[in-house]
Automatic annotation (TrEMBL):
Annotated Thioredoxin domain residues: 34-154
Protein's name according to its UniProt entry: Thioredoxin
Family matches, as SUPFAM superfamilies: Thioredoxin-like, TPR-like
Keyword Disulfide bond: yes
PANTHER family xref list: GEO12009P1
Keywords: Disulfide bond, Electron transport, Redox-active center, Transport
InterPro entries linked: Thioredoxin (IPR005746), Thioredoxin-like_sf (IPR036249), Thioredoxin_CS (IPR017937), Thioredoxin_domain (IPR013766), TPR-like_helical_dom_sf (IPR011990)
GO CC terms in record: cytosol
GO molecular function, one term: protein-disulfide reductase activity
An example Gene Ontology biological process: response to stress
Length: 334
């Protein structure tokens, strides 16, 4: 590296330690070692990108005239870089667009770092209005990263930033990028621990990853006044239904019983429970609707009551809920 003097004096390194794998424990609410994958989450659209020497002026200098840009100088051989970068990405996503992150591999593009006098990595430099204004060196704790981003990007509209981060998490989840979704939910909770949408989102990811205990622990962190919020109630209902289904056994047995006797409502009911646990929502609803149609009074209207519990677990806007509710209304009121 160059011996040029770093701009603005020393940045002040940190001895903070980072986990080497993505953990659902950044908030302290979930078990310490729950991971959904070993790969680092990918860049998130325009908020995070890699740059080159040739593109540095456009990606950093020009872009910083519109909003603050953080530049992460790193290298593949740098252990602390591997600790810092995922946490930095997570914090930038959670900031909801207050800052952008540009990453530069100094092995491939050493000249910019040399010109800035960077002599050790990881190094993060913040640019505003085309000029470097602040920075730090070393892997620092997640809380300090969030403070740095707030200092550089300003507090802005906290509610809007959280809403944008939640939208990004849900978008990542719908795209199948579960790890990135988990990272964003966890980052939101690190900054706004009473955000019930993030509690529900991360809790559901934990549950789907097989960590029911972790999901329960996370649900317990919800503020007392919000513990019965619909998004949290839906997750609790989903977990309860799965626990019931797990005790029922092999669905093939219930299918055999129904083939022999289509009026075996208990077999159809139990099969619906298992289908729901498998994610076969339409089939589960149809089996309960078949019971309601054949014998509304069976088990003290138990099929309808169970269908309503399904609706609660699936969510009022879920397509399966809407379709089954229309069928139920047709049965009850036609």
């Amino acid at each position: 590296m160059s011996d040029n003097k770093p701009f603005g004096g020393a940045f002040g390194s940190s001895g903070g330690q980072y986990a080497t794998t993505v953990q659902y424990g950044g908030t302290g609410a979930a078990p310490a070692k729950v991971a959904l994958g070993d790969a680092a989450p990918p860049a998130a659209g325009d908020v995070i990108k890699d740059t080159t020497t040739a593109a540095f002026a456009a990606d950093v200098i020009q872009e910083s005239r519109r909003q603050p840009v953080l530049v992460d100088f790193w290298a593949p051989w740098c252990g602390p870089c591997k600790q810092l970068t995922p946490q930095l990405e997570k914090a930038v996503r959670a900031a909801g667009g207050k800052v952008k992150l540009v990453k530069m591999n100094i092995d491939d593009h050493p000249s910019i770092a040399g010109q800035l006098g960077i002599q050790s990595i990881p190094a993060v430099i913040a640019f505003k209005d085309g000029q470097p204004v602040d920075g730090f060196m070393g892997a620092i704790p997640e809380s300090q990263i969030a403070e740095f981003i707030t200092k550089v990007g300003g507090k802005g509209n906290g509610a809007a930033a959280v809403a944008e981060a939640l939208a990004a998490a849900n978008e990542a989840r719908e795209a199948g990028d579960v790890q990135t979704a988990a990272d964003i939910f966890d980052a939101v909770l690190a900054q706004a621990p009473e955000t019930i949408e993030a509690i529900a989102g991360l809790g559901e990811l934990l549950f789907e990853a097989g960590d029911t205990q972790g999901a329960e622990a996370l649900l317990a962190t919800a503020p007392e006044a919000k513990k019965d919020a619909p998004v949290l109630a839906a997750l609790r209902a989903k977990m309860a239904l799965a626990a019931q289904a797990a005790e029922l056994g092999n669905p093939a047995e219930f299918e055999r019983r129904l083939a022999e006797n289509p009026k075996d409502h208990q077999a159809r009911f139990d099969l619906a429970m298992i289908q729901n646990a498998r994610g076969e929502r339409t089939a589960a609803a149809d089996n309960l609707l078949a019971i309601i149609k054949a014998d509304r009074g069976w088990n003290e209207d138990g099929a309808r009551a169970q269908l309503l519990r399904f609706f609660e677990a699936w969510g009022m806007a879920d397509e399966a809920t809407l379709a089954a509710r229309r069928k139920l209304s047709a049965l009850l009121f036609s």
